[in-house]
């Protein structure tokens, strides 16, 4: 919309004829006709009179006008120039803030992705440590120092008729531990009675819950950031053509 079209619309809505309104403004009807048909541009004084006569602010007068038209035809009016520049700076600031927020989302998404991919906070590797049973060898030796061989045999085997220990002094109670912590190829765990010797076996990698959460957040934030930049660019193009 041009200023001439806006002036015709306002006069029509107010119910003024062209001669009546020209007289109210104190200008020639021919000059008002030129203004309403965009054959002339109002001076600062006439623009103020138009706003006063229609009881509207300068912002209301130009808010429906084409932005390129305002920049090309009406920037000689200080109040319009100031308002236009102020709006431009506000819009520029909002666009800058939106770009910073979206870029931050993308940066955090990349950080989350590499945290999960490089296993910086949680490893995907798993180890199984397996023990064949509890070894009582030390306890048997200690028992033999204090009691008879048969008494010790009965204590550890429950058999009253044998008096010799088997070669394997482990109880047949296997146990396995699955952990993400590597404890070496083997380690010994002392118990109240006996000890267990565990041997390592690496299991197939399984992505940890923490890394899954990092990847989900990475995808979510990356999507938000990219969509935000696309929407902002679209609004910028639309705003520029208005």
UniProtKB/TrEMBL annotation:
Instruction: Identify the SMART domains for this entry.
Output: HTH_XRE
| Record-linked SUPFAM superfamilies | lambda repressor-like DNA-binding domains
Q: What is this protein called?
A: Transcriptional regulator
Tell me the Pfam families matching this sequence.
HTH_31
**InterPro entries the UniProt entry points to:** Cro/C1-type_HTH, Lambda_DNA-bd_dom_sf
What Gene Ontology molecular-function terms does this entry list?
A: DNA binding
Q: Which domain of life is it from?
A: Bacteria
Signal peptide segment:
none
Membrane-spanning ranges: 97-118, 213-236
Q: Which UniProt key words apply to this protein?
A: DNA-binding, Membrane, Transmembrane, Transmembrane helix
Q: Which residues form a coiled coil?
A: none
HTH cro/C1-type domain: residues covered: 7-61
Has the keyword Calcium been applied to this entry?
no
């Amino acid at each position: 919309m041009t200023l001439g079209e806006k002036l015709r619309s306002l006069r029509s809505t107010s119910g003024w004829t062209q001669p009546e309104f020209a007289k109210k403004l104190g200008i020639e009807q021919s000059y008002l006709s030129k203004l309403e048909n965009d054959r002339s541009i109002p001076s600062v004084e006439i623009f103020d009179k138009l706003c006063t006569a229609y009881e509207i602010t300068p912002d209301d007068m130009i808010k429906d006008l084409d932005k390129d038209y305002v920049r090309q035809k009406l920037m000689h009016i200080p109040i319009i120039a100031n308002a236009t520049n102020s709006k431009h700076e506000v819009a520029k600031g909002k666009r800058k803030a939106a770009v910073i927020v979206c870029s931050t989302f993308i940066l955090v998404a990349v950080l989350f992705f590499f945290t999960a991919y490089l296993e910086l906070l949680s490893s995907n590797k798993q180890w199984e440590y397996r023990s064949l049973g509890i070894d009582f060898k030390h306890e048997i030796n200690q028992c033999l120092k204090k009691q008879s061989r048969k008494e010790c045999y009965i204590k550890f085997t429950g058999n009253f008729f044998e008096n010799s220990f088997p070669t394997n002094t482990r109880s047949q109670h296997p146990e396995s531990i699955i952990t993400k912590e590597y404890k070496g190829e083997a380690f010994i765990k002392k118990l109240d009675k006996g000890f267990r010797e565990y041997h390592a076996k690496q299991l197939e990698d399984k992505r940890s819950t923490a890394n899954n959460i990092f990847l989900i957040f990475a995808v979510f934030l990356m999507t938000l950031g990219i969509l935000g930049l696309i929407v902002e660019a679209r609004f910028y193009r639309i705003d520029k053509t208005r």
